[in-house]
Amino acid sequence: MAELDLTEQPGFDDCVVIAAWAGWPDAAESATRAVKEMIRQLHAVKFGSIDPEQFYVFTEHRPVVSNGPRGTRSLNWPSNEIYYYRAPDGTGTQNVLLIVGEEPDLRWGAYTGYLSSIARTNGAKMLITVGALLDSVPHTRPPRVMGTTSYENLNDMIGPGFEPISYPKPNYEGPSGITSATMDAFSKLDIPSVSIWGHAPHYLQVSYNPAITMAILRELQRFVKVDMDYSNLEKQAEEFDQNLVKALEGQKDLASYVQKLEERFDTEEEARGRPEPRELMMELEEFLRSERVSDDEDSVSPGEEEPRS
């Protein structure tokens, strides 16, 4: 596998794989920034990369030239890097493999085969793909992050010590990306997967939205027990909001549009907070069962006399 360059193998017996790709599945760079921030804070160790030569059309993914401080010039090609975080013994934290790269143009089968092979070698028990998309959501509301999974017993897969997570099955149909291709490759090795997507306001033409990145990281922490410091991201998000307020001043048409988005967002969130009919029936059945138990306990046992008034 000359295209896959590994300097070592972590040698994990089990781990969680987290992956994000720049390009089509990364609106406002929110997904890749989230994984990069996790790599930075965990001091994750780079141990692998994939040679870009056979996976990109360079007239589409052009290498970027940059100037160094002393007049040197460097050419940076599309990259795909693989890191590991080894959990300290006795902490209950999971080992993590982290993949961050750029969505390839070519040979998706070979590309995802490399990633799934590394995962299998290191006992991966779950894949979490991270993406971000443009959506009709207002920037004035908390960032929306949604997840899906085809795995029936998600909470069994996560294990004890985590709050229960309820993700629906994916229902999207249409053109797909490297996230779906990777999930498919992992499924052939019986490695279940979860897909997490941040939703970025489509009307904001920004290269980076720190609020979405922070929301994605918080969602990831529902699956992996790692400590994250959000102070820097919170500062970035605050500055982002302040600059946004100034940039949108006087744009009455946009303000009216955002107000409509707010109304729809609030209605959708209210609907999401209401239990589904099936959940309501289960709650009702549980209530009736508890009432029956209570009635049985209060009833007179055989052979006992009722107290006389």
Describe the structure.
By secondary structure, the protein is an alpha/beta fold. The chain folds into two domains: 4-229, PAC-like subunit (Rossmann fold, 3-Layer(aba) Sandwich), CATH 3.40.50; 250-297. Helices cover 37% and strands 21% of the residues. It has helices at residues 30-42, 108-121, 154-158, 178-187, 210-220, 231-248, 252-273, 277-298; strands spanning 4-6, 15-22, 45-50, 64-67, 73-76, 80-85, 96-102, 124-135, 144-149, 193-201. Strand 4 (64-67) and strand 5 (73-76) form a beta hairpin. Helix 1 crosses helix 5 (210-220) and helix 2 packs across helix 4 (178-187). Mean pLDDT is 88; it is low at 299-309.
Whole-number total of structural domains: 2
Strand content: 15-25%
Name the average pLDDT: 88
What is the spatial order of strands in the main beta sheet? 1-3-6-7-2-8-10-9
Given helix and strand content, the structural type is alpha/beta
What share of the residues lie within helices? 25-40%
CATH superfamily of the largest domain: PAC-like subunit
The CA-CA distance between the termini, in Å, is: 89 Å
CATH level-3 fold name of the largest domain: Rossmann fold
- Radius of gyration (CA) equals 24 Å
Along the chain, the helix and strand elements come as EEHEEEEEHEEHHEHHHH
Shape: globular
Low-confidence stretches: 299-309
Number of continuous helical runs: 8
CATH A-level architecture of the largest domain: 3-Layer(aba) Sandwich
Name of the CATH class of the largest domain: Alpha Beta
Characterize the main sheet: 8 strands, mixed
Let me know the number of strands.
10
